[in-house]
Amino acid sequence: MIENLNPIPEEQANLHIVENMDVNNLPELMKSVLSLAHTPAEKDMLLMSALTACSGVLPNLYFKYGIGAKRYYPNLQLFIVGSAACGKGIANLALELVKPIHEANPLIIPGDATYPAFYQTLAKQHGRGYIHESEGSVITDIWRTSTANYNTALRKAAEHETISRARCREASVIENPQLSMVLTGTFSQYKALVPSIENGYFSRLLTLIVDEHQAFNSQYVQPSESSDETVKTCAEQLYHLYEKLLFSKPREFCLTPDQRTRLGHHLETAYPTLIRMLGEDFHSVVLRMAVHIERIALILSAVRMTSFLTPDNIRLECSDIDYATAELIGNKLILHMAQAYQLVKGTEKIEAPKVKPLDQKAILLSLLPAEFESKTLVAEAQSQGISPRTSTRWNEEWMAHGLVQKIRYGVYKKNA
Question: Which CATH number fits the domain that encloses residue 372?
Fold first, then answer.
């Protein structure tokens, strides 16, 4: 493979998801899908689009969240934001994963559809659907006349709230919608769908920002037969799982008590600094990330079950591996959504945003106790998806700038 002629800085690379996780902890199906990607950006786009595609074909799985123990389903909605030639097309492999299911049981809803057609199709499919559009211009051109309708419908679908439509001659409702969606496009197309931070859809739509140009590679000119076979095999595995779930009783997915405590503690302690940096409006993103993390944990757990799902396996408990992976993904997505937050709030017109990473170094330092050991630094850094090597280098820089002093071997103190 030709190396990227313009490698991104290490701090920017820290925003990558797959590069900062142990891929061996992923389910076999996800590892197979990721084998088709090459660059860090491709891997992130393929992982998130594949997770989102899978989220649309896992019927009869749910978890309870919140004081009212509301039922949530796996469905994710994702927008991949990037300039032309950044390789967003790799996300289309996710569409191939669900096509066999769609052929047997209609599921896919074209993005190239008016709102009445979208609503009619979703209603016909009993509130279940999957939208996948790689051409953002199709979405903005078709949706321009009814952006508010789409925005409201997608926001309600993200919360599984009833979507209603009333006209002079007809009125109908779609109860408990379960809609998954993968969109890719430029920032201007993203902003057409999410015009403001105050819009409630912003915190419900997962955003992945790609600031990387795809290097030319001959494999894009000559598709690999082995790649096609890999996609086919993964699609077949997903189809078999879908069939088992479709004809089974509803199954509740649960985090363990320790995992749920960790999730709440993590969100309460890890992101106050980020909220102070961006403003209270970002608080809703942090709160809703808890639901996204549990959805991702559910998807990972379900996909891992492809070979041993049985009728007696009614209640599913999350493994520590899948929870840790979901939490790491959530950590990175929050940083991507922080970038989108700044762009939407502070930019009127922009086609291809140049992403400047948040100061993860400052955030990490603020989260460390007044005195900390090397192992504490590494553990806190890894929880944020920062490698031990990078955190050690940052600590050396802090000492060089007088922000941290060494007390004794392996023990440090922050200067006031």
Answer: 1.10.10
Within a 10 A sphere around the Cβ of 23, how many other Cβ atoms?
A: 14
- Assess if residue 356 is contained within a domain: no
Confidence tier at 193 by pLDDT (50, 70, 90):
confident
222: helix, coil or strand? Answer: coil
**Helix, strand, or coil (residue 342):** helix
Residue with tokens 């890890």: 270
What's the domain count of the chain?
2
pLDDT of residue 8: 33
Cα–Cα distance for residue pair 242/172, rounded to 1 Å? 28
Q: How far apart are CA 257 and CA 263, in angstroms?
A: 10
Contact indicator for 192, 144 with CB cutoff of 8 Å: yes
353, amino acid identity: P
Choose between 364 and 255: higher pLDDT. Answer: 255
Alpha carbon of residue 336 to chain centroid: 10
Task: Specify if 354 maps to a domain.
Answer: no
Question: What pLDDT band is residue 151 in, cutting at 50, 70 and 90?
Answer: confident
**CA 31 to CA 102: how far, in whole Å?**
23
Q: Name the residue range of residue 42's domain.
A: 10-346
126 is a domain residue: yes
Shared-domain flag, residues 49 and 79: yes
Mean pLDDT confidence for 131-160: 77
DSSP string, 159-199: TT--EEEE-SS-EEEE-S-EEEEEEEE-HHHHHHHS--SSS
Contact 252, 313 (CB under 8 A): no
Q: Quick one: 337 and 365 in the same domain?
A: no
Are 263 and 293 a contacting pair, CB within 8 Å?
A: yes
Smallest CA-to-CA distance from 331 within 266, 256, 404, 394 is with: 266
Are the C-beta atoms of 148 and 200 separated by less than 8 Å?
Answer: no
Beta bridge partners of 128: 178
Asked if the structure places residue 3 within a domain, the reply is no
Beta bridge partners of 82: 210
Residues 249 and 395 in one domain: no
SS (H, E, C) 353-379: CCCCCCCHHHHHHHHCCCEEEHHHHHH
